[in-house]
Amino acid sequence: xxxxxxxxxxxxxxxxxxxxxxxxxxxxxxxxxxxxxxxxxxxxxxxxxxxxxxxxxxxxxxxxxxxxxxxxxxxxxxxxxxxxxxxxxxxxxxxxxxxxxxxxxxxxxxxxxxxxxxxxxxxxxxxxxxxxxxxxxxxxxxxxxxxxxxxxxx
Length: 154
Description:
Layout: E1 2-7, H1 14-30, E2 37-44, H2 46-57, E3 65-69, E4 87-95, H3 96-105, H4 110-125, H5 133-150
Parallel strand pairs: 1-2, 2-4
Antiparallel strand pairs: 3-4
Helix pairs in contact: 1-4, 3-4, 4-5
């Protein structure tokens, strides 16, 4: 899987980027993403994620992670198929500020919080959601399974 990393905060250590890359490859294997896939992970501050949240979700407050899935089908849109075309999953945007705040709030490491937000965003790219209790339970259970199997349980 090809992952583009963009750190607009210039604060995410290489060790964390390496961890997130390994985690995403692991999660992709667990979810059966076997074809060559592409995605990006973007690290931003609270100000930038608030702007994205306001513009795309009509919520004028900072959030921890936002995903922009490219595999969602839209009615009337043609499917592009072919084995030679890479699967473009989309973009994950993580607020480094929120990750640090929530690591303290939830009493675990910054590393664990970044990993949690990464898996959460990744599952959104794959179509998981938490708009109702049933879907939320399924998504959060899957997040914890992936993190646990990777060795980052709470």
